[in-house]
Specification:
This protein is an alpha+beta fold and about 525 residues long. It contains 15 helices and twelve strands. A hairpin with a 5-residue loop joins strand 1 and strand 2.
Length: about 525
C-alpha cells in the first residue's frame, strides 16, 4: 500500500521519467566535466579553495567516470528506473560531500550543488525518499563538521552554524521539491486522462458520423469537401483519399447550396447523384470554419424516405382499419345473413333470387377486402432463419398442388446450386409464393398452364424467379399492379401483390416484375 502523499505505484515508469533521468545524467556529465576543466585548468589559482588536493582529484575523476557510466546505463534503461535514480542521487550526494570536505566543508562554494542534487532527487523520487536524500546529505555535512571540529584544525561556531543552516535548506528544498513533484505528477496524470477522454470522444464522434444513415458532408467557404462519411461517399461516389470540390461531384447539389446561401428560406429539392442512379434530399446548415462560412450538408436517400413514409402510411392504415372493422363487419354480417334468408324464401322469383345472389357475392367480396386490409395491420414481425431451398421448395410444391388440385408436374423446380440457403421467414415466403403462383395459374393457359420456380445465385445474392407460360402482362398494368387496391379482375381486391411486396421488404428482400425473354410474365424475389 503506498505511503501517504505518494502517488500509486505503476508497474512501469512513464516515458517522461526516463527522459528526466537522462537529463540528470547529461547535467551530471556537464557539471563533472566543468569542475574538472576549472580545477585542472586553473590549478594555480585554486578556484575551489581545495585543502586536500589528492582527495579532491581522486573524487573528481571517479565522479566523472561514474557520470559517463550512468549516462550509458540510463540510455540502456538497465537496471530499473527506481534503482538507477536512487543510486545516482546517492552517488551525487556522496561525491559532492567528499568534494566539499576536500575544499572547506559547509563553507565550500560547492554546497549549492549539494542542494541541487537533493532537489533533483526529490523530483525524481517524491515521497519519503525525498526526505531520505535531505537526511543523508545533512548527516554527512554534520559528520564532516564534527570531524573537522575534533581535528587538529578545529572548527569555529560559524562552521557549525553554516552546517545547521545548510541542513535546514536541504530539508526545505526537499519538501518544496516534493510538493512541486506531486503537483506536477497530478497535472500530468490529469492531462493524460483528459487526452484519453478527448481521444475516446473523437473516436466516438467519428463512429457516430460514419454510422449515420444520412450522408454527411462538410464543405468549406471555397466549396471544397473537407469531410464525408461513408454514406455520403457511396451516394456521391467519392474515393477514399479524395476531397474534391462539390461542384465537380454534384453540380445540381452545388447549385442548390449556392441558392440556399442566397436565400435561407428556400426549400431544397431532390437531386440526382452517382450518375443519376439515386436521388437524395439535401438539408443545409451553416458551419463556421477558420477559412470562413462553410456548410454542413445532410443527404437523405429519397428511396429510404419513401419507404419510411410508406411505413407511416401503413401504420395509419392499420389504426384506421382496426377502428372501423367492427363498424363494417357487424352490418355486413347482418346484410349477408338477411340475403341468405331471402334466398330460402319459397315465393321468391328468379329475378329476386338473382338479386340476392348479387348481394351475397358482394358481401363476400367486401369481407375479403376487410380481411386483407386487417392482415396488413396485424402482420407479424419477421422471424428469419436459414432455409434450405431444395427441401423447402419441394415441400411447397407438394402442398400447393394438393391445395389447388393441380398436377405437381405443372409446377417446375429449377434449383442451382442444390445446397443454396436463404435467410428469410419461411411463413412469409410461403405466403408470397402462394399468391404469385395462384395469380400465375389464374391468368395462365388453364389446364396447360405451367409455372417455373427458378432459384439462382447472382452477384447480389440468391434470387427466386416465378415465371409462367401465359401471355404476359401489359406495360400499363405492370407499372401499377403493386399499388394497393389496383386490380384488373372483377372479383379481385388488388391487395395480393401489394402484401407480397411488403412481406418481401420486411425480410430484407425485393419483389419486382420483369418481362421474360419471350414476353411472358416473370416475378423476381432478390434476397440479400
Amino acid at each position: 500500500m503506498p505511503a501517504a502523499g505518494m502517488p500509486p505505484p505503476r508497474l512501469s515508469p512513464h516515458p517522461s521519467e526516463w527522459q528526466a533521468l537522462r537529463l540528470l545524467s547529461f547535467y551530471r556529465v556537464i557539471i563533472a566535466g566543468l569542475l574538472a576543466v576549472l580545477y585542472f585548468g586553473l590549478a594555480d589559482s585554486n578556484p575551489f579553495n581545495v585543502r586536500q588536493p589528492a582527495l579532491f582529484t581522486a573524487t573528481l575523476l571517479v565522479y566523472l567516470a561514474f557520470s559517463l557510466g550512468a549516462g550509458l546505463s540510463t540510455r540502456l534503461r538497465w537496471p530499473g528506473y527506481a534503482f538507477q535514480a536512487l543510486v545516482q542521487v546517492l552517488a551525487d550526494i556522496a561525491a559532492l560531500a567528499l568534494l566539499m570536505h576536500a575544499s572547506g566543508g559547509a563553507a565550500s562554494s560547492l554546497a549549492i550543488l549539494l542542494v541541487i542534487a537533493v532537489v533533483v532527487g526529490a523530483l525524481l523520487l517524491p515521497g519519503r525518499t525525498a526526505y531520505l536524500f535531505a537526511a543523508v546529505a545533512t548527516l554527512i555535512i554534520l559528520f564532516e563538521t564534527t570531524m573537522a571540529g575534533i581535528s587538529a584544525e578545529g572548527a569555529d561556531a560559524g562552521h557549525i552554524t553554516r552546517a545547521g543552516l545548510l541542513g535546514v535548506v536541504l530539508f526545505t528544498a526537499a519538501g518544496l521539491a516534493h510538493i512541486v513533484s506531486l503537483r506536477a505528477r497530478e497535472s500530468a496524470a490529469l492531462a493524460e486522462q483528459r487526452g484519453i477522454d478527448l481521444a475516446n470522444l473523437e473516436q466516438l464522434n467519428r463512429y457516430i458520423v460514419q454510422q449515420l444513415q444520412s450522408g454527411l458532408l462538410v464543405v468549406d467557404a471555397g466549396g471544397s469537401v473537407r469531410l464525408a462519411n461513408d454514406t455520403a461517399r457511396q451516394l456521391l461516389a467519392i474515393g477514399e483519399n479524395r476531397s474534391p470540390r462539390l461542384d465537380r461531384l454534384a453540380v445540381e447539389l452545388a447549385d442548390q447550396l449556392l441558392r440556399w446561401r442566397n436565400d435561407r428560406h428556400w426549400q431544397p429539392q431532390p437531386v440526382a447523384v452517382a450518375g443519376g442512379g439515386a436521388r437524395v434530399v439535401p438539408r443545409f446548415s451553416e458551419l463556421s470554419t477558420s477559412s470562413g462560412k462553410g456548410a454542413l450538408i445532410l443527404l437523405d436517400d429519397s428511396t429510404r424516405l419513401a419507404q419510411q413514409a410508406q411505413q407511416l402510411k401503413l401504420a395509419s392504415l392499420g389504426r384506421l382499419t382496426a377502428s372501423i372493422a367492427h363498424e363494417i363487419r357487424n352490418p355486413l354480417g347482418a346484410i349477408s345473413h338477411a340475403a341468405q334468408l331471402l334466398q330460402e324464401s319459397e315465393p321468391l322469383n328468379d329475378a329476386d333470387r338473382r338479386l340476392s345472389e348479387i348481394i351475397c357475392n358482394h358481401t363476400r367480396r367486401v369481407n375479403e377486402i376487410i380481411e386483407n386490409v386487417l392482415q396488413l395491420s396485424r402482420r407479424s414481425n419477421s422471424q428469419p432463419q436459414k432455409v434450405p431451398m431444395r427441401q423447402w421448395m419441394h415441400a411447397f410444391r407438394e402442398d400447393f398442388a394438393l391445395s389447388e388440385k393441380i398436377q405437381a408436374e405443372q409446377l417446375l423446380l429449377d434449383i442451382d446450386p442444390e445446397n443454396l440457403e436463404v435467410h428469410v421467414d419461411p411463413g412469409h415466403l410461403h405466403q408470397v409464393l402462394t399468391n404469385l403462383c395462384e395469380n400465375a395459374f389464374r391468368h395462365g393457359r388453364g389446364a396447360e398452364c405451367q409455372v417455373r420456380l427458378r432459384v439462382r445465385h447472382n452477384a447480389n445474392g440468391a434470387c427466386l424467379e416465378i415465371s409462367d407460360n401465359g401471355p404476359g402482362i401489359d406495360p400499363e398494368t405492370a407499372e401499377q399492379m403493386f399499388e394497393p387496391f389496383y386490380t384488373t379482375a372483377a372479383s379481385g381486391t388488388g391487395l395480393g401483390l401489394y402484401i407480397a411486396r411488403e412481406l418481401c421488404e420486411i425480410n430484407q428482400a425485393r419483389l419486382s416484375y420483369q418481362a421474360g425473354d419471350d414476353g411472358r410474365a416473370c416475378f423476381r424475389i432478390q434476397f440479400t
